[in-house]
Design goal:
Helices cover 68% and strands 0% of the residues. It has helices spanning 3-7, 12-34, 36-77, 84-98, 103-114, 126-129, 137-143, 146-157, 162-169, 191-206, 217-226, 234-242, 245-256, 262-269.
Length: 271
């Protein structure tokens, strides 16, 4: 056999052998000193843990498929903004990494961003979403309820982290306290929500709309600076501009466009 066959891909077989060697020695010692009963004392808890791990893996895969289905449903409701949730999730991940957040928080931000508009799958929003011109005050008040609706949907799923649900609920809060649904201000707004707010706005500005063409990157930068401290967290604005996050996000979206199905794109940005 070749060296690769022995070592395994990326050294996986060799690593497994090294890690399992102490366990084999423990089993032998237990058998010699206590007989088969001693071996069972060691092995049974490990079998239980293995079964539990396998169950968690199946649940994780099921959750990924469910999230992909939810996002696809959102995209279907508003074909004009197809890909919006995926682009917001990509941008939110980049910003979270630029902020130096840990892997768990980065994954939470990315998933929450992917689901930030999940409330819009409710049929009550259909006519408003597809309306080609400006909304009436009543229609605007209705569409603003999608944030709380989305949080309620995710909370009812049971498997969603509380912080993720909270991020979806508050992703339209403004830094100066004039946003919705709760009028939170400054750092009272969860960090995840502040990141999604900015990512959502950036994608809206970089995308074509029925009433205007996409803005240039330079214009988007100008708008971020203009609304820093009002709509956006000024410290995050500084980091986004310094890290050239906008250019990186546009490059990624360009690479993905037309190369994958919606489901594949969703799964590619999930943790």
């Amino acid at each position: 056999s070749t060296l690769t066959d022995v070592v395994g891909p990326r050294g996986g077989n060799l690593l497994y052998d090294v890690l399992s060697s102490p366990f084999v020695i423990i089993v032998v010692v237990q058998y010699l000193s206590l007989g088969i009963g001693g071996v069972l004392v060691v092995i049974l808890p490990l079998l239980v843990l293995r079964h539990s791990y396998a169950g968690r893996q199946k649940l994780a895969h099921a959750n990924r498929d469910l999230l992909a289905a939810l996002v696809k449903a959102i995209e279907t409701r508003d074909p004009y903004t197809s890909g919006h949730s995926i682009r917001v999730a990509t941008l939110a991940k980049l910003i979270a990494e630029d902020l130096g957040l840990g892997l768990k928080k980065v994954d939470r931000v990315r998933t929450a961003a992917l689901l930030h508009d999940v409330g819009k799958i409710d049929p009550v929003y259909s006519a408003v979403i597809l309306k080609p011109h400006s909304l009436t005050p009543e229609e605007r008040a209705l569409i603003q309820t999608h944030a709380t609706k989305g949080a309620d949907i995710l909370r009812d799923m049971g498997s969603m982290e509380k912080e993720l649900v909270t991020a979806v609920r508050h992703h339209h809060e403004w830094f100066d306290g004039t946003g919705y649904p709760d009028g939170l201000r400054g750092e009272d707004i969860p960090l995840e929500a502040r990141i999604i707010m900015m990512s959502d706005a950036i994608d809206a500005m970089l995308s074509d709309r029925p009433y205007r063409s996409a803005l240039s990157i330079e214009k988007v930068k100008s708008e971020l600076q203009r609304f820093a401290g009002q709509q956006f967290d000024p410290s995050i604005v500084k980091i986004v501009l310094r890290a050239k996050t906008l250019e990186r996000a546009v490059d990624l979206v360009t690479e993905w466009r037309g190369t994958q199905s919606t489901s594949d794109k969703v799964l590619s940005v999930l943790p």
